Amino acid sequence: MSKCYIESHTHAGMIPHAGFGIMAEKGIGKMVSCAIVLAARHAESYFDHFRMIDGFYRQLAASFGIELFSAVGVHPAGIPEDWPRVIDSLPEFINRDTVVAIGEVGINQISTLEKDVLRAQLEVAKNCNVPVIIHTPKENRPAVVDEMLNIAGRVGINPALMVIDHAHLDIIGQINDFGALPGLTMREQNLTAPVLVEHLDLFARGMMNSDYSNIMPNDPAGFVNAVEYMRSRQVDENLISALAGGNAAQLYGI
Ligand SMILES: [Zn+2]
């Protein structure tokens, strides 16, 4: 397989300078940076964030030989009071060649506000016919996923455009039954390489990522360790290639 992996879910604005170097060294050639503005109060915070990632950080990544693509959207950990203004602007950002998805969006607490923001963003994804990256929380996961899939069903979005991220055994059945794609966040707190290898059939349509942020212990190229583990367990090279880049390349057209 080609040595170019795709980091399918990261947060470029939080990656340390050395982290970009490690990603490049480990063979990551492309990355998708998801939007997040923690505790955002104003729509402008998101507009500047989108421009910062697609402009400044795209250039920085390029200096390491990594092509950066972005996802744009309102993260549940920072919903501004004037969030509809961000939603209204999403089609304009999505028009750029380097913006490949809506995300990351989702629900943490099942509040009415979170549900409204998610629904609005799924409607944009449906109308623009673009993929959407959906976050799942740490707690109450099957119930939250159920709620999100109900909303998606009512919106009528094509399930094959939906990536349900931070997938694990607790929700993979719901994801597969719905026809969505699992995002595979490879780290101790989420999916580990041994669990993935033990249940490859369940996760085969997925896309690996490290979901790097600075809010927990983290490794910007952590998923490549899982790739190496899979190889040590003689996992089929075509499947490794799909999980470590091929599936993401196909969905995002990158
Ligand atoms: Zn994330």
From TrEMBL:
A Pfam family it matches: TatD_DNase
InterPro entries linked: Metal_Hydrolase, TatD-like, UCP005295
The protein's name in its UniProt record: TatD DNase family protein
SUPFAM superfamilies reported for this sequence: Metallo-dependent hydrolases
GO terms of molecular function: hydrolase activity, acting on ester bonds
Spans traversing the lipid bilayer: none
N-terminal signal peptide: none
Superkingdom classification of source: Bacteria
